[in-house]
Amino acid sequence: MHRNPDGYDTLKAAGCAPIKLWTRGVPVEPAARAQLEATARMPFIFRHLAVMPDVHLGKGSTIGSVIPTRGAIIPAAVGVDIGCGMMAVRTSLTAGDLPDSLAGLRRAIERAVPHGRTPGKRDRGAWATPPASVDASWRQLQRSFRRLTEKYPRLERSNHYTHLGTLGSGNHFIEVCLDEADRVWFMLHSGSRGVGNAIGRHFIELAQADMRHHIADLPHRDLAYFREGSEHFDDYVAAVGWAQDFARCNRELMMGHVIEAAGSVVRKPFRADLEAVNCHHNYVQRETHFGEEVLVTRKGAVAAHKGLLGIIPGSMGAKSFIVRGLGNEAAFCSCSHGAGRAMSRTQAKQRYSVEDQVRATAHVECRKDADVVDEIPMAYKDIDAVMAAQATLVEVVHTLRQVVCVKG
């Protein structure tokens, strides 16, 4: 490992592109390092991989990694939660404007935004009858979706229209936060929901099928790829672009419903457009780096071009950050997408109890039951250490602490 004075360390294994890690003071699990090395063996990696301090083992590729490629895309590296990301808005409210009991505000948000898993035959995480706002947004997305499903009709059977404007489950959340001046922010985390999952899975399978005669030559079958100019390359780029549009629209719709829900509880006129950020952290797009056009896949990483605002959330019960990119070219102008898991969901449930969850989130109005123990703050890395490790990638604009958290 070579230690660079610019804040990162370089790992160079035999037969691999260099791997630059912004992980000083943050643990990197051996399985994640092995997964990074497997990706770095692919022949079309451009210059090096960039690894963010929230790095941990992922499905398809390592979460917290930035993968620049020339002439090829790895669908499993983008993953199935295409366009997943964050949105935050600052309001004109302050802490004193919030009700003394925040339970009513939490319930209002939970009623306004479908969330959670599917119990039996009824999906409480989807709309039974989508509101007019969803109808209007879906009409804007529908034409491009029809072009996609004409060639890939399987995607029509996915949840798309009824998932637009909904949260999901797992680590997706909606929060009411206070910044360093006690100003109220609304923040949420979600992506392209069922339709993004369907797109991701379908094209991962296509890539593996296209490479069926060479799959054994890959470091892992999840590294199956489309070559630029091949049958499915352009279709995949178009499908991912559409899913990213869906994800961004999904967050905007949810935010509108959160603002309306808060207005029904606070009962004081307020603005919610004083500052706003909406950013992906699971996606691929064309960018220019080191004077060349490349495809940049950010798997659990946020664009941090110079001056660009982004969001780095902590865990349930820990602070979060609105940041401004420093445009660090060595990191392909990227930063972490959060704190990053320190242990798997299964490990967290085995190690911690509901009582632990209650204590860890005592200052937050949120669920405190067995189904969210895997999201306990201790299951994540120390957000302060994560931020210190990427001091050359971003600067902090606002520090947020949550007072309400809605989980799926």
Strands, helices and their partners?
Elements: E1 2-3, E2 9-11, E3 19-21, H1 30-40, E4 49-56, E5 63-69, E6 72-73, H2 75-78, E7 85-94, H3 103-112, H4 132-151, E8 173-178, E9 183-190, H5 193-210, E10 226-227, H6 233-266, E11 275-280, E12 282-289, E13 292-299, E14 301-303, E15 309-312, E16 320-325, E17 334-336, H7 345-351, H8 354-360, H9 383-389, E18 394-407
Parallel strand pairs: 3-4
Antiparallel strand pairs: 1-2, 2-3, 4-5, 5-13, 6-10, 7-9, 7-11, 8-9, 8-18, 12-13, 14-17, 15-16, 16-18
Helix pairs in contact: 3-6, 4-6, 5-6
Please write the CATH class name. Alpha Beta
Low-confidence stretches: none
As a percent range, the share of strand residues is 25-35%
Number of helices: 9
CATH superfamily: tRNA-splicing ligase RtcB
Query: Taking all residues together, what is the mean pLDDT?
Result: 95
Structural description of this entry:
Helix content is 29%, strand content 25%. With 408 residues, it is α+β, with helices and mostly antiparallel strands. Strand 8 and strand 9 form a beta hairpin. Helix 3 crosses helix 6 (233-266), helix 4 (132-151) packs antiparallel against helix 6 and helix 5 (193-210) packs antiparallel against helix 6. The radius of gyration is 21 Å and the shape is globular.
